[in-house]
Amino acid sequence: MRGPAGFFLCSLLLVAPHCTEVAAQDIQPDPKTPCANWMGGAPGYPGHNGLPGRDGKDGKDGQKGEKGEEGVQGPKGDQGEIGVLGREGPRGFPGYPGQKGEKGEGAFVYRSAFSVGLTERAPHPNVPIRFSKIFYNEQSHYDASTGKFLCSIPGMYYFAYHLTVYLTDVKVSLYKKDKAVIFTYDQFQKNNVDQASGSVLLHLSTGDEVWLQVYGEGDNNGVYADNINDSTFMGFLLYPDLDVN
């Protein structure tokens, strides 16, 4: 496009923008009209939100802060449940022996006993039989000179006698405080040696006396003893009264 025609086209192109600018300054169309400008269109809709960006890298730790003040102590909590019993621990070493204790006071043992035998033949009736052969009389509660046992410890006693009978009948009685308690009678058989015995439990008070005696008159004093035959009398304390000091 050379020649006059090209020149004319170039002139139009140079003049057109200028005229357009002048016309735009003179006429201001309403922007709300559908065609506010010969090149304008309807307003567009807002776009969608974009995707979140990636997390940034962790920052460096800051300097350690100062220690805060101690808070107020809270209320005591409820007691917890009892736990399961644990395993038994290892056995410990034996401890050192303790110091020797002081000697205690021993319990007092009350003793009263005697055992005696006859040395005389045919004792006299109605008097205590004097058993002068002493087998045991450690506490000296039996008096050989009188034939009587004297109670020094109140309590329960056991008495017994075993007599040889020879030449005549025997009737004896065990006395307590001038009163016959038990009787024993044996009828002698000629050309023979018999035995008579008896036993009894008695409660005695301090000062009570007990002895054995031929009972009644006549030929009832056949109590006998020699080097091969004995007639014995014995007694001992079973247990004292509880109020004995």
From TrEMBL:
Annotated signal peptide: 1-24
A Pfam family matched in the record: C1q
Keywords, alphabetical: Collagen, Hydroxylation, Secreted, Signal
GO (cellular component) term, any one: extracellular region
Domain C1q: 107-244
Keyword check for Iron: no
Principal location listed in the UniProt entry: secreted
UniProt feature, compositional bias: Basic and acidic residues: 54-70
Positions of the UniProt region annotated as Disordered: 34-98
Keyword Chaperone attributed: no
SUPFAM superfamilies in UniProt: TNF-like (SSF49842)
Compartmental location: Secreted
Protein name per the record: Adiponectin
Provenance organism: Eudyptes chrysocome
Gene: Adipoq
